[in-house]
Amino acid sequence: MHIKSAEFVMSNSDVAKCPKSRLPEYAFIGRSNVGKSSLINMLTSRKSLAKTSGRPGKTQLINHFLINKNWHLVDLPGYGYAKVSKSSKKVFQKFITQYFSLREQLVTAFVLVDIRHKPQPIDLEFMQWLGENGIPFSIIFTKADKLKPNAITRHVEDYKTVLLETWEAMPNYFITSSSKDIGKDDVLNYIDELNENMKID
User: Fold this and answer.
1) Which backbone phi and psi does 81 adopt, to 5 degrees?
2) Is 145 exposed, middle or buried (0-12, 13-18, 19+ CB in 10 A)?
3) Tens digit of each residue's pLDDT (9 = 90 or more) over 186-201
4) Cα 114–143–84 angle (5° rounding)?
5) By Cβ atoms counted within 10 A, which residue in 6, 56, 64, 132 is the most buried?
6) Which residues contact 123 (CB under 8 A, 6 or more apart)?
7) DSSP structure class, residue 106
């Protein structure tokens, strides 16, 4: 897929106020220091479409971007480690839950995970919640440029080992690096394939 256009549509904390169109949506979410904004900018070939920040937890709203006039990329607040008050965290975690529970346009979620670290409980718990609620998702491993190939393979295997304790199969996953454009075509082609399948249906 070639990204011809990418434009900001809206930000809000109320799922009921999300775009009324029936366009398919793909939601990106992960811990607040996982490199989500950089990944979105890499995928769309726009340097500042999503705001990157040295302060984790900057994204605290549901952000919709219209891609190629025919699908929405949704940037959701990061979970965990955000330096915000407990009350603020509860508010935006609530609308994250509402988004996934109520948004019929959602095709699949992409859960971003830092490839450099061992499986983290907060990531595993969120994936478990998605699974229990029947929400399709893929894992996007970020920052692959920080590790050697053997280490990448080993860390992915660590995730497989942990996830297969409770899952029948390893979820679909992608290896990416925003700084090296690694995995860009894989993720975009996957989204393109899902969009095409919906047209056939």
Assistant:
1) 70, 0
2) middle
3) 999 999 999 999 876 5
4) 50
5) 64
6) 30, 31, 111, 113
7) E
Q: How far is CA 175 from CA 89, 142, 143, in A?
A: 29, 7, 8
In angstroms, how far is CA 136 from the centroid of its own chain?
12
Residue 1 lies in a domain: no
CATH code of the domain in which 24 resides:
3.40.50.300
Tokens standing for residue 12: 């809000």
Q: Which residues are 26's β-sheet partners?
A: 73, 108
Domain encompassing residue 133? 6-200
CA 11 to chain centre: 16
pLDDT digits (tens, 9 = 90+) for 142-177: 999 999 999 999 999 999 999 999 999 999 999 999
Could you give the angle at which helices 121-132 and 149-163 cross, rounded to 10 degrees?
50
d(CA 58, CA 81): 11
Task: Check if the beta carbon of residue 77 is closer than 8 Å to that of residue 51.
Answer: no
